[in-house]
Design goal:
CATH class of the largest domain: Alpha Beta
Number of domains: 2
Helix content: 25-40%
Mean pLDDT: 88
Length: 267
């Protein structure tokens, strides 16, 4: 995401994609679209909700995915790579001498909490691949890539292009939630949700499916999206077409600090 992200400030989604637009204000008071829908899975959803509340907004929990950790064995390798906190939470006991490279500091911290020696890259899968290429030698043995089922296929391909042998291990499954929570349905139906946070393309698509299943898609043009990356924003735009969100904004960097900074910029 480095450099000039063309959607790093403020975006409105049209049928042809994001375009720049003026800032809109989300009221910091009850009613009038003041609530913020939190769609990331637990346990991260509750953490994000607490941070949103600390900024003066009213969070509404609506996790679009349920994470199911899976135990996995770690074969002999030169390093273990982690692409998410969910993968870090599923780690087995540490393997002495096996270094961990994580996609970002939050994931590295989660691994260290489980007594692994870990360091974080700058926050994206591309950053993790670059760090692995700089730190590791393809001739020194395979890399273990601990991921969610169906995730990080592009990263595995990137590492293989760089000459590494990559062994994927499934650390968790992400299953779509069955429905929106009743509080989220009420807030959305009554027009009290002013913004929704999307942390991944899949959670965005699943959340929108739940909104559609609840018969609430018509409210989309009244809701603003805050997306953790341009890729997430594009997924959220495509999933509601031909409708369009009121406005979309994309974090400068793909991390929650940057994402919530967008929310904190409001009046």
């Amino acid at each position: 995401m480095g450099g000039g992200n063309p959607c790093a400030t403020i975006c409105r989604v049209s049928n042809t994609g994001p375009t720049t637009s003026p800032t809109l204000t989300l009221p910091r008071k009850r009613g009038g679209g003041s609530k913020v829908l939190i769609t990331r899975p637990e346990p991260g959803a509750a953490e994000t909700a607490a941070r949103v509340a600390a900024l003066g907004f009213e969070p509404v929990l609506a996790p679009a995915l349920t994470l199911r950790p899976q135990s996995f064995a770690i074969p002999r390798a030169q390093a273990l790579l982690l692409t998410s906190r969910a993968a870090a939470r599923a780690l087995p006991d540490p393997v002495p001498g096996l270094p961990v490279l994580a996609v970002g500091e939050a994931t590295a911290s989660e691994a260290r909490a489980r007594f692994w020696q870990a360091e974080g890259a700058a926050g994206t899968a591309d950053d993790l691949a670059i760090q692995a290429a700089a730190r590791l030698d393809p001739r020194a043995g395979p890399l273990i890539l601990a991921v969610g089922q169906g995730y990080a296929l592009d990263l595995a391909a990137d590492l293989r292009r760089r000459g590494f042998r990559v062994i994927r291990r499934i650390a968790y499954r992400a299953e779509p939630a069955g429905s929106l929570p009743p509080e989220a349905i009420r807030a959305w139906a009554e027009g009290r949700v002013g913004a929704v946070l999307f942390h991944s393309p899949r959670s965005a698509r699943c959340a929108i499916n739940l909104i559609r299943d609840a018969g609430l898609l018509a409210q989309v043009p009244q809701v603003e999206v805050l997306a953790i990356s341009r890729r997430v924003a594009e997924a959220a735009a495509a999933a509601v077409a031909p409708l369009a969100w009121r406005q979309m904004r994309v974090a400068e960097r793909p991390g929650e600090e940057s994402l919530l900074r967008l929310l904190g910029q409001r009046g």
